[in-house]
Design brief:
With 242 residues, the chain is mainly α. It is 63% helix and 3% strand. It is built from 10 helices and 2 strands. It has a two-stranded antiparallel ribbon with strand order 1-2. The longest helix is centred in the last third of the chain and has 29 residues. The protein is globular. The chain starts with a helix and ends in a 10-residue tail after the last helix. The model has no long low-confidence stretch (mean pLDDT 92).
């Protein structure tokens, strides 16, 4: 019974994780969602900037802190390992809801693509970046990334297969394709407002800073293999040398 509950819990978490990402994708460009990034009552400018910046930083800190090995060791004292990752996905959905609910719009236009063909082109790139980020999760196990594989392994009473460190596909071009996507994606909006600019700038700055700490963890966990990988593959820009 416990195994089934773990699996059910993780399956719901998987669907919730996908739904929260889909909502966020629509939220950031004001498309197809009940509340977009430019919706809501307009507050004084600097109050909105302070609230929105804090929300983005909270969103980033959740992802960074819960990914640390030290946090996972502490976390799994109370959360069973088969649902540890799924619980993280639930937390991510909650954090996404908080960001969307409390976001303060600053609907001052910076640019707007009036040409239909140009707007379609920008949206195509936006969607392509989201697809690239999704594709990157399959490199080390899409279902494990969202916590479903761990519960499935427990349900079948089999040991979790270790994921070997490899540098293939997107990870052979840059070391952090998902983080790169988070930085690029907000800029591809046919209608860019100050509120969207606050999101884009805060996310970009946060990722650039947080990546240094993430890499330090990876060096401790993987060792020389990661040091060699870091020497051969650039952080964010394909074909460059860090």
């Amino acid at each position: 019974m416990t195994k089934f509950l773990f699996l059910f819990y993780s399956a719901i978490g998987y669907l919730l994780g996908l739904a929260s990402l889909a909502y966020l994708a629509g939220f950031l460009i004001d498309f197809g969602v009940p509340k977009g990034i430019n919706d809501g009552n307009v507050q004084p400018f600097w109050i909105s900037v302070l609230i929105d910046t804090s929300l983005v930083l909270g969103f980033g800190l959740h992802h960074s802190l819960t990914a640390r090995s030290s946090f996972k060791r502490w976390w799994t004292q109370w959360i069973p390992e088969p649902i540890e990752r799924a619980t993280y996905v639930y937390m991510t959905a909650v954090v996404t809801f908080i960001v969307v609910f409390f976001w303060q719009p600053i609907p001052v236009t910076i640019w707007q693509v009036e040409n239909q063909a140009g707007s379609i082109l920008v949206l195509t790139v936006y969607v392509a970046i989201w697809l690239m980020m999704s594709a990157a999760t399959f490199h080390f196990g899409h279902f494990g990334f969202f916590g479903l594989r761990q519960a499935w392994d427990r349900y079948l009473d089999r040991s979790a297969a270790s994921v070997p460190f490899t540098a293939r596909y997107l990870y052979s071009l840059v070391r952090h394709p998902i983080s790169l996507g988070w930085m690029l994606m907000p800029w591809f909006a046919p209608h860019m407002t100050v509120g969207q600019l606050v999101w884009a700038l805060t996310v970009t700055c946060y990722v650039l800073i947080a990546t240094k700490y993430e890499e330090a963890d990876l060096v401790r966990e993987i060792g020389d293999d990661y040091l060699k990988y870091r020497a051969e593959v650039p952080t964010f820009v394909p074909g460059t040398r860090d």
